[in-house]
Amino acid sequence: MANHAEQPAPDALKVELRTALDQARRQRDRLRTTVLSSVLSEIRNREIEVGGELDREQIHEVLSRGTKQRREAAEQMRAGGREELALKEEAESKILSEFLPPALEESEVREMVRELVDSGLTEMGPLMGRLMPQLKGRFDGKDASRIVREELSG
Known about the structure:
It contains seven helices and no strands. The protein has 154 residues and is mostly helical.
């Protein structure tokens, strides 16, 4: 028989997601129920891959990936003239983003980049290497790359 004391307690974020799923089911909110059960399945699959409970940062990665995929899908749907599907993807992305840390504003990221440049980092690769861990799940990498290029050329 397995010793349950060895299992780390589930992260509070995962508990929050399960609670939100239960609430969505009680309210018969089909979109929210589908999105939350889908992301909890993704988290569970990731836990099977790594062989243990995910920590908060790893759960944020799953949520970030889900929001990014849905935003990109919305852009593709809109480009294909499928506005209704684009709105659905955006609604799903918004549900997932509720469980992520607040997004950073472009001005905040620009300030972070300037501080790194002032500290002596003047090459794209090393600068992005220092910047991205601070932005994880809070700001889009493509936009961060654009800001870095602008600040290095300006």
